[in-house]
């Protein structure tokens, strides 16, 4: 039997093969057989509400009214945000941006779609 690689994310030894992917049942990380492990660890993958992969500098549109703490105004549906920056957010706020009328703010990826 072939020795399967450990998970590059959590180092679990309980990985399994599904078609052309390796899958870790402990952390649900998936990676392709031919992908290098160092490449997967260093890249941050952020997807919008539709599943489209976002990159630094993309323009996005807000898809839900958002309340802003400490402010009486909020962010309305359809607000366009230009030139986003992707950051590692431990609470799900992976998009750093500036919104006209609000200022610098971090957004969650599930509340935006790529323009």
Your description of this structure?
Residues 36-41 have low confidence and may be disordered. A hairpin with a 5-residue loop joins strand 4 (46-47) and strand 5 (53-54). Helix content is 5%, strand content 32%. It has one helix at residues 37-42; strands spanning 16-18, 21-23, 30-32, 46-47, 53-54, 60-62, 66-67, 74-75, 80-81, 85-86, 95-99, 103-107, 112-114. It is built from 1 helix and 13 strands. By secondary structure, it is mainly beta. The strands form 5 sheets. A 3-stranded antiparallel β-sheet has the order 1-2-3, with no helix packed on it. The protein starts with 15 loop residues before the first strand and ends with a strand.
Q: Which properties best describe this structure?
A:
115 residues; three-stranded antiparallel sheet; elongated; YjdM
Oligomer: single chain
Number of strands: 13
Beta-strand percentage? 25-35%
- The stretches of 5 or more residues where confidence is low (pLDDT under 50) are 36-41
Rounded radius of gyration (Å) = 18 Å
Sheet with most strands: strand arrangement = 1-2-3
Strand/helix succession:
EEEHEEEEEEEEEE
Outline, from the CA principal axes?
elongated
Binned, the helix content reads under 10%
Largest sheet geometry: 3 strands, antiparallel
Q: What's the arrangement of secondary structure elements?
A:
Blueprint: E1 16-18, E2 21-23, E3 30-32, H1 37-42, E4 46-47, E5 53-54, E6 60-62, E7 66-67, E8 74-75, E9 80-81, E10 85-86, E11 95-99, E12 103-107, E13 112-114
Antiparallel strand pairs: 1-2, 2-3, 4-5, 6-9, 6-13, 7-8, 10-11, 11-12
Pfam families: YjdM (PF03831), Zn_Ribbon_YjdM (PF08274)
InterPro entries: YjdM, YjdM_C, YjdM_N
Domain Protein YjdM C-terminal: 46-114
């Amino acid at each position: 039997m072939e020795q399967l690689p450990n998970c590059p994310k959590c180092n679990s030894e309980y990985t399994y093969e599904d078609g052309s992917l390796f899958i870790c049942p402990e952390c649900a990380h998936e990676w392709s057989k031919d992908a290098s492990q160092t490449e997967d660890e260093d890249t941050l993958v952020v997807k919008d509400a539709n599943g489209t992969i976002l990159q630094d500098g993309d323009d996005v549109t807000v898809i839900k009214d958002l309340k802003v703490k400490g402010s009486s105004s909020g962010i309305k549906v359809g607000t366009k945000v230009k030139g986003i920056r992707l950051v590692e957010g431990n609470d799900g706020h992976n998009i750093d941006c500036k919104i006209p009328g609000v200022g610098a703010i971090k957004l969650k990826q599930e509340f935006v779609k790529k323009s």
